[in-house]
Amino acid sequence: MVREQREAEEKAARARKESNIAEQEKLAREAEERAAIDSLMATTRAALTLQDPALIEAATQTLAKGTEAFAALRMNRGIQQALAGRNIETV
Fold it and tell me: What is the rounded distance in angstroms from the CA atom of residue 6 to the CA atom of residue 8?
């Protein structure tokens, strides 16, 4: 009985450790993505101060392309939250 309990605790501890590692990796990716978006936004703001239409357009397009994945992720989360617990036939 003690052996089984110890094995269960060790298994739970490994699962917590793996979960913590996965969460740390996710947070690191999110921080990198946020830094990239912040950089794109700073570039766009800098372009606006130059009042060069071509440069502003290029920076805006780069910002839009650089944030597509982020926007899609947010939209998907919103849809998931809106549909949580709902029957597909009622949607």
Answer: 5
Q: How far apart are the first and last CA of the chain?
A: 50
68-83 and 53-66 are packed helices; what angle lies between their axes, rounded to 10 degrees? 50
Q: How large is the C-alpha radius of gyration of the chain?
A: 22
Calpha distance 27→31 (Å, rounded): 6
Tens digits of residue pLDDT in 16-56: 888 888 888 888 888 999 999 999 999 999 999 998 999 99
Residue pair 67/40 in contact by the 8 Å Cβ criterion? yes
Confidence of residue 70 (pLDDT cuts 50, 70, 90): confident
Closest Cα to residue 36, out of 63, 4, 6?
Answer: 63
| pTM for this predicted structure | 0.64
